[in-house]
## 1
Amino acid sequence: MFLFSQPIETARLTLRPFSLDDEADMLEFESRPDVARYLYNEPRTPENNAKELAARTTQTVLLAEKDALTLAVDLDGKVIGYVLLVWLSEENRQGEFGFVFNPEFQGRGYATEAAAEMLRIGFEKLGLHRIIGRCDVRNTGSARVMERLGLRKEAHFVESEIFKGEWGGELHFAMLASEWRASPLSKAEDATA
Ligand SMILES: CC(C)(COP(=O)(O)OP(=O)(O)OC[C@H]1O[C@@H](n2cnc3c(N)ncnc32)[C@H](O)[C@@H]1OP(=O)(O)O)[C@@H](O)C(=O)NCCC(=O)NCCS
């Protein structure tokens, strides 16, 4: 079980729950076709963005399997992206993480910096044994974030699903708790302590 209790401060960012005040920042990037290109959702409209935001404000606890922790990534008061951690299996201590950022703030390492904290929560607070990340085979930016964080590429599924009207392939990456403990990231100051 994990209950989010206080904002996480990284070197440059604050990770915190979404609030209804974040609507404009969220719509700014989640309405963009380039952001939604490799996500299952389409670019958000103001209506479904507001609905999704309302759901995210409650995603602050991991009490049971399938629960998601979704945190806004705040840079000097502006939400520039979000990171999430889904509890896949309690018995097998498995989780999945993800990250989505505003293109205006990409290329500066913010996604890598924020996503590392989801690995930290998963391994150090929730006690997970393994965390996976998945991306479309064409999503090189996402794959690079996972490699930079030290995840291993475990699989390349070829034309494994129909994605947005065409055959899509998927890469699966993973990290074990033992690999996290050996990683330089885990030695960094625990911002959630
Ligand atoms: C996937 C996504 C988050 C990657 O964004 P990103 O900006 O490339 O990732 P980061 O913020 O970690 O930045 C990394 C880049 O900044 C560079 N960088 C600059 N300063 C850096 C720093 N201090 N630390 C780390 N990297 C830094 C890196 O070299 C890297 O560049 P490269 O990809 O050319 O090697 C982004 O493309 C995105 O949101 N896409 C749309 C949503 C999506 O597809 N999400 C993933 C779903 S699976």
## 2
Amino acid sequence: MQSYEQSLQQTREFLLDHDDYLVVSHVQPDGDAVSSTLAVGWLLSCLGKKFTMLNEGPIPQRMRYLWHADQIVNLADGELTRTYDRVICVDCADFQRVGLTQRYFAPDALIANIDHHPTNNGYGAVTLIKPDAAATAEILFDLLKTFQVQWDIDVATALYTGLLTDTGGFRYTNTSPKVMAAVSELLALGVNGPELAETLLEEMTLAQVKVLNRALNTLQLSSDGDIAWVYVTPQDMEECGAANEDLEGIVNYPRNIRGVEVGMLFKVITERSVKVSLRSAGKVDVAELAQVFGGGGHTRAAGARIDMTLEEAIPRVLEEVRKRL
Ligand SMILES: [Mn+2]
């Protein structure tokens, strides 16, 4: 098992020794996924390397102020015309998380896997995994330090965005002294913390409020009051004009009820497919629980896609939660 320092060096060499990279992150990208993609792109551009940034879907509207966010190719808008031999995956706990972007990986592509999920399975030729990092952005903060590049407000804002969003606004247990030291440096580079908090954490679209209202109308509590859940259907999404990104944060409402240990959001995808988001108050390791269903994540925040109807999936997940309480 190589040390974190060795992994940083190995990743540094991977970036210096090659050219023409594909930089990807997970489907339905969050703040850390987007900012990590851009921080790697920023570094590669400083190194004079060719690169393409790619995601399966669109970048959430609220993150489009980020440096070169408009240059992340979205497969919903268009295809790439070729494959890549050098791929950098950020914030992806397993290979499947990259979604349809894997079509553009050459069959023998060398992959660098940069991530902070404890459930990361170590795919790729180069691995830079730090499970106790608050965000992939924290790992990239360390990686960028190994290069002689002049940091600017663009990269500082990207890194800050990943740290801010993955720590829930510097509130979750992953908000370590290391995070705050990094944040201190980023603020000194001119990052506008309050404005980012407003844009990324506070501001809601009307569609978001409407779909939240629908979800809260489905709220149910277990008889012991320690598990709470809500669900959203495709019809809700359509009638509210909501996109996937509008569901962000909804799962915190059931979780925030006093006495609740596990909060859940079920999103119906199709007749026989449901996505569940899980949040834990601390007693239950929801990353481990999500793995039962082929998903993953962090001990307090995880998710999985389950090929069942909503009516089948809810009791099945409840049973697994109950076992752990
Ligand atoms: Mn992350």
